[in-house]
Amino acid sequence: SEFDPEPFIVHPENYSIRTMFKEDAIMELELSDRPFVLYKSARRGQLTIVYRRKDGDYAAMDVCC
């Protein structure tokens, strides 16, 4: 609606995409306070996001296109 405010980026960040294995990305996630790790898969060359789900498990999502 016309009264909904536009989204506003409050804390812009720079993020370096490193090449690593999924296990290393999960370890980096566990050791950081970030909600996700974006990396280039050392096995497949694919950009992938690893994040912690609400149930505590980890999920991986490939970034395409």
Describe the model.
The chain has 65 residues and is α+β, with helices and mostly antiparallel strands. The chain has a domain at 18-62: Sigma 54 modulation/S30EA ribosomal protein, C-terminal domain (SHC Adaptor Protein, 2-Layer Sandwich), CATH 3.30.505.50. Helix content is 15%, strand content 31%. The chain is built from 1 helix and 4 strands; from the N terminus they run βαβββ. It has one helix at 22-31, and strands at 18-20, 36-41, 47-52, 58-62. It is globular. The termini are far apart.
In short:
15% of the residues lie in helices and 31% in strands. It is α+β, with helices and mostly antiparallel strands and 65 residues long. It has a domain at 18-62: SHC Adaptor Protein (2-Layer Sandwich).
| CATH architect. name of the domain at 18-62 | 2-Layer Sandwich
Helical content class = 10-25%
- Major sheet strand order: 1-2-3-4
Portion in strands: 25-35%
List the defining traits of the structure above.
65 residues; SHC Adaptor Protein; four-stranded mixed β-sheet; 1 helix; globular
Secondary structure topology:
Layout lengths: L17 E3 L1 H10 L4 E6 L5 E6 L5 E5 L3
Parallel strand pairs: 1-2
Antiparallel strand pairs: 2-3, 3-4
